[in-house]
Amino acid sequence: MAEVKNDLSYTADHEWAQTGDDGVVTVGITDFAQAQLGDVVMVELPEVGDTVDKGDAFGTVESPKSVSDLYAPFSGEIVAINERLEDEPELVNASPYGDGWIVKLKVTGDAEGLLDADAYRAHLEAEDH
Amino acid sequence: MSNPVTRGLKFREPLIFEMSTPGRYAHSLPASASSAPGKVNLPAGFVRDEAPLWPEVSELEAVRHFVRLSQQNYGIDVGFVPLGSCTMKYNPKINEEVARMDGFAGLHPLAPESWIQGALELYWTLERYLAEITGFDCVTLQPAAGAQGEFTALAMFRSRLIARDGNPRKTVLIPDTAHGTNPATCAMNGYKTIPIASTANGTVDPAAIAAAMTEDVAGIMVTNPNTLGLFESDITQIAELVHAKGGFVYCDGANMNSLLGRARPGDMGVDAMHLNLHKTFSTPHGGGGPGSGPVCAVSELEPHLPTPRVVKTDDGYTFDHDRPESVGRVKAFFGNFGMHVRAYTYIRELGCEGLKDATDMAVLNANYVRVRLRDHYHVPFDRTCMHEVVLTDKHQRKATGVQTRDIAKGLIDRGFHPPTMYFPICVPNAIMIEPTESESLQTLDTFIDAMIDVDETARRDPQAILDAPTKTIVGRLDETRAIRKPILRWHPEAGEDV
Known about the structure:
The structure holds two protein chains of two kinds.
Chain A: E1 9-10, E2 15-19, E3 24-29, H1 31-37, E4 42-44, E5 51-52, E6 57-62, E7 67-71, E8 76-81, H2 84-87, H3 91-94, E9 103-107, H4 117-127
Antiparallel strand pairs in A: 1-2, 2-3, 3-9, 4-6, 5-8, 6-7, 8-9
Chain B: E1 5-7, E2 10-11, H1 31-34, H2 59-71, H3 93-99, H4 102-105, H5 117-134, E3 138-140, H6 146-165, E4 171-175, H7 181-188, E5 192-196, H8 206-212, E6 217-223, H9 235-244, E7 248-252, E8 272-274, E9 295-297, E10 309-313, E11 316-320, H10 337-373, E12 389-392, H11 394-400, H12 404-413, E13 420-421, E14 430-433, H13 441-460, H14 462-466, H15 479-484
Helix pairs in contact in B: 3-10, 5-10, 6-7, 10-13
């Protein structure tokens, strides 16, 4: 069973978000998502300073199986990207909630509307993967 | 060198560079070439001092090397290729015979019109056939492939919107069951895409289109039947909703093999579509030859078709370059003409009734596969499908750990090319099978038995499937490492580094 961390928020598209003390949100993909993708071979990142609208595709995660878009969980500005992923995309598999984080986002709009851990677990159940 | 035989008379062939023996050669130049006096008249810095490191092999070694490599090819003339979404139908040999006629094969693209009247007649007539088959008013044969056809059609939408409203609009709607090239087509034409989720039924809900359709939306790109092999039964209503807001409807024609002779997208409210002659009309795929992606459109879009147009006059066929509203030329000369000859031949050989029969058999074959496999594989949308069916690995993955990729490898050991895997992406771990009308009942049964054997073997001895393929010259490849650490050239000196 895929790990779902209690202290994170989630999207139905299998991303997680964690709001830091400074209001900056760290975004990555969930353990379930990395397991579904298989070995991640490339992460295409946006540039620091890019602005995104909620739901926009801001990058991609690629495995031998497929290429998946990453969708912005909130509207905001990209303030940091995980540059290690350029050479070590496998971090997304090894540590999806840690060293495999993808971007940090300074939220400009509404920061509501994500799933909590229980709701995300229910979502995984409902999709019956 | 050790004997490269690994499987009876199948050969694990080394690189030709690895076969090199210093001093060995296969050429025999005329005396005039080797005794030519003087120096090559090239600027300093452009003349090399040493001979290039070409492989040094005899003629026989070169011939065997390339014949052995050719024997490792797998194609439709070798066996069944059930790749969903690709329509790997048989390419009849008469197509090749006609395409090789001197009057077609020997044409120069700059030959004067009066010399090429026959070719122009075929070109013009094929446009009319395709217009009739799809229910549209006009056709361009220029695009070289489906993706270029999509690009051309969206460029025509854009031109039309600018001509009509002075505003190309900003976005295009794309259902998640559409083809993967569609978003790229939008980006190439300067549009953002708005994804539309399909319903639990596997099709597009008109309500979702009504909600998303605004006067900022240039149109919709829909694939019908969609990539689940399901017919979009609300297509007419969807088209009305898009038209009501002034948008255009594009139909990706990749799946036209399920409609040919039976239904016409032009009658369903679609404004433009492309055809893949290399799918639906039996011209070769990929390495077998270039593709061809004609675009069919309604008369409103006719002024925007690529230039030049072939037109029929009282004095014969001629090129019309005077097309001020055209999107321009999208392909050198007139497209891949050899493919037009083959598609024309296919249509003439089958005729109206033959095309209908082909469509019926393509749909029947897909449903036969679905019904015979549904007790063994999960069928996410288990209802009458069109020309292809989508399965998943859900039963095997939960019970045995065997996944889609492993099932594909298991099929190779049983003598079949795998189906399309992990596509469409809206179905996790998809296995997409398109038998086409070409395959006999016997071939389908053999394939289905192989699929069932993979399932039963997975339940009895999953490791046997996880280790597959074992009967091939090369076993399972490390796909991850191939992508993460690709080595794209061979280093003669640093063999240990590779």
